[in-house]
Every structure is written in structure tokens, then in C-alpha cells.
Write a structure and sequence with these properties.
With about 400 residues, this protein is of the alpha+beta class. About 55% of the residues lie in helices and about 20% in strands. A hairpin with a 2-residue loop joins strand 8 and strand 9.
């Protein structure tokens, strides 16, 4: 039966005798484990940031954009043709069972002025459903109401970045700002959302009633024209059916014959963001895999040193066998030494990796999430490396002939 206590003492003494060599041998494991933790922490941070951005954008989203125009054989790109109206939006909500909410939008960049302060930003003409579709919430005051849309009221809701740049520490509610020279009463401030998946500041915008934008501020090519229509499907499974229903309905409303191309395009926003999330997951795995190479290199270092140790301690092995130690005892002793080297390196690597990841998260704008999973997986992997790369030297030591070992100089 194996004597674990004795094996542990012998292994510990052997490692203490060659302290510097033990530390240098473990260095590869220390670097490998810390690199895995840092890379997985950065990857997890990126993944959670994208998930939060998806959540802030809204769920089950489709966006309808106008089609493209062609001039002298040159296609002008998506959105260059004005083909969508608020009546299209009403028809979609009424006739497409897979659609839960519809939000027609017009938007332009305008100059905003309050007192001596001015700020240029995107002005969105919306209906109240836009808040539901894009998951916007009011932090202070009130949002755009159906009555505001019906009466084309000159009211405005500010994004938090705009409120800060125009008003600083002042409370903007009930104050009057001028948008392109036209007075608007501030009725609310939006809840902060932060950056979008594309790095755009989502809080740098203001919202006004759709009809006010169409009739008073922007002017449109024809009555009821909108720039985009945002759609929220009933659920994730309804996205594809909703897309088909909308396509059939709009082709019918726009009198498009069989051989005519669509004068609109439908984009699956949710699918695009999910693809970004999947790409982030792949990147995290790739970074972890690259960092794992350091662990393998550390394992090779352990194997090398253990082979040297077996050669140096051949006489010791012969003496132990001569007084009754079995091959299994010798094998276990060297395997245990390799495991101690890798686990002690893994422990120090965990401390180093957590420390560096914390510093990166504290002193940079990167989102870094140190998860228990990354610690357990990297520490566990260091133990597996110790067993795998320590087995051959231990096996070789256990096969020594006691007489030959005692004669070894």
C-alpha cells in the first residue's frame, strides 16, 4: 500500500533542495495559468458587454429601410429612395400577426441651443411605441405621448449626454431649448444606455413627436413619409414569419409586380447582434487557446527537469528499491513531485493572473470579468499538465533495475 505521508515528505524535501530550479521550472506554469485567466477574463468582459448592448437595443427587432434609387445606371445605396410612410407602419401592425409593436421614425442632425450653450445631435421624430420597441425608459419627467403626436406638440425628451452638454448641473425639465431655431419645451430625460455595439453613444440624441418632425422641423418629400420603421416581433421564433408577412404586405401596398425588385429592405437586427455575440465567444475561446500554449510549454519544462532529476537520483532510487520500495512507489513519488511543481505554479499563476486582470480592469476602459470558471479551469489544467508531463519520467524511474541503479555513478 502506498505511503502518501512519506511520499509527500520525500517530494517536498526534494523540491526544497533545488529551490531555484523548482521555481524556474514552475515559471512556465505560472505564466501559462496567469495568461489563461487574463485572456478569459477579457473575453468574458467583452461577451457580457455585448450581451448588455443587445439587451439595451431591444429584443426580437427588425428594421425596415427604404430601397435604393438608380441614377444614370448608378445605384445610390439603401435608404436613398423615399418609399415608406407611417400608413405602412399602421398596416403592418394591423395585418401582420407575428408583429407585436411598430415604430416609424424620421431623424436628422440638428443644432440645439440653450442660453449660451449649443450642441449638434440626432433628432428623432417618434411615436410612443418607439420607447417600447427600443427599450428606452424615462429617468425624469415624461416621454412623448399619443396626444403629443396627435397635436404635433413642440416637446422634446433629451438623452442624458445632451442634457449634460446643454444644461450641466441644471434641471432641464420645463426649460425651453431651440432646435434649428424652433422653441421646444423639455418634458423628460431618458435613462442612460451607454455605448452601442458599434461604439456609438446611444445617449447622444433627442426625441420629439413624429408629426412635429414631419410637419414643422424637418419637412418631408410627401405627407407621412418616414425614414425607417422598427418592428418588434411577438417573440424570437416569430422573426422569420414576421419578415415574410411584412414583405408580402409592403409589396402589395407599393404595387410591386412580380418582376419588380423590393423598394425596401428588411434587416434582422437581433440576428446581427447575436452574430456579434457569437464572434465575441469565438474570440474569447481563441485567446484562451493561445494562452494555453504557454501551459503546454510549462509542461514540457516540467518533463525536462523531472528527467534530469531521475538521472541525478538514480542511486537514491536503487537504494529505495533495495530496501523494499516497489516500482509503483517510485513511479508515484516522481509523479507526485511533478504534480506539486505544476500545482504550486498554478496557484501562483492564479494569484498573478487575478492581480493583472484586476489592474487592467481598473486602469483601462476594457471590461474585465474575473470568473470562478476561468480560475478553476486554468488551475485544473495546470494539474492535468503536471500529471501528463510527469508520467513519463516517473515511469522511466520505476523501470530501473535496482542493481544497475546502485552501480550508477
Amino acid at each position: 500500500m502506498l505511503d502518501f505521508t512519506s511520499t509527500f515528505k520525500i517530494s517536498l524535501r526534494s523540491l526544497k533542495v533545488n529551490k531555484m530550479r523548482s521555481i524556474l521550472t514552475s515559471l512556465g506554469i505560472i505564466i501559462g495559468v496567469s495568461a489563461v485567466i487574463i485572456m478569459l477574463s477579457i473575453g468574458e468582459g467583452a461577451k457580457q458587454r455585448i450581451a448588455k448592448q443587445i439587451e439595451s437595443t431591444g429584443s426580437n427587432l427588425l428594421m425596415i429601410a427604404p430601397g435604393s434609387t438608380t441614377s444614370s445606371g448608378v445605384r445610390m445605396g439603401s435608404g436613398s429612395q423615399s418609399t415608406l410612410t407611417d400608413k405602412d407602419a399602421e398596416a403592418i401592425l394591423k395585418n401582420c400577426p407575428s408583429v407585436a409593436h411598430v415604430a416609424p421614425i424620421v431623424n436628422e442632425v440638428k443644432q440645439l441651443v440653450y442660453g449660451s450653450q449649443n450642441w449638434s445631435t440626432a433628432v428623432y421624430g417618434i411615436t410612443p411605441s418607439y420607447m417600447t420597441v427600443r427599450l428606452w425608459h424615462i429617468e425624469q419627467g415624461k416621454g412623448i405621448s399619443e396626444e403629443d403626436v396627435k397635436n404635433s406638440s413642440k416637446v422634446v425628451v433629451l438623452g442624458s449626454s445632451v442634457a449634460l452638454n446643454l444644461f450641466g448641473d441644471l434641471n432641464p425639465i420645463n426649460k425651453t431649448i431651440r432646435i434649428a431655431g424652433m422653441p421646444f419645451k423639455v418634458t423628460g430625460i431618458l435613462e442612460t444606455k451607454g455605448q452601442s455595439g458599434m461604439g456609438h453613444d446611444q445617449d447622444d440624441l433627442v426625441m420629439i413627436p413624429l408629426t412635429t418632425a414631419q410637419k414643422k422641423l424637418f419637412g418631408v418629400s410627401f405627407p407621412g413619409m418616414v425614414k425607417f420603421i422598427n418592428i418588434q416581433a411577438v417573440d424570437a421564433d416569430s422573426l422569420n414569419p414576421a419578415e415574410e408577412e411584412i414583405k408580402i404586405l409592403l409589396r402589395e401596398r407599393h404595387n410591386l409586380g412580380k418582376n419588380k425588385e423590393d423598394d425596401f429592405s428588411i434587416r434582422n437586427f437581433t440576428q446581427m447582434m447575436e452574430m456579434a455575440k457569437a464572434a465575441s465567444n469565438t474570440m474569447a475561446l481563441l485567446l484562451g487557446a493561445i494562452a494555453s500554449v504557454s501551459l503546454l510549454v510549462g509542461g514540457i519544462g516540467i518533463m525536462n527537469i523531472m528527467l534530469v532529476s531521475v538521472t541525478e537520483r538514480t542511486r537514491e532510487i536503487g537504494i529505495r528499491m533495495a530496501i523494499g520500495a516497489k516500482a509503483l512507489d517510485i513511479r508515484f513519488q516522481f509523479l507526485f513531485e511533478a504534480l506539486m511543481l505544476s500545482l504550486s505554479g498554478g496557484f501562483l499563476g492564479v494569484l498573478l493572473g487575478v492581480g493583472i486582470a484586476y489592474l487592467i480592469g481598473s486602469f483601462s476602459e476594457m471590461s474585465v470579468i474575473i470568473s470562478a470558471f476561468s480560475i478553476v479551469i486554468s488551475f485544473g489544467f495546470s494539474g492535468i499538465i503536471g500529471v501528463l508531463f510527469g508520467f513519463y519520467p516517473a515511469y522511466k524511474a520505476s523501470l530501473l533495475n535496482p542493481i544497475d541503479a546502485l552501480r550508477y555513478e
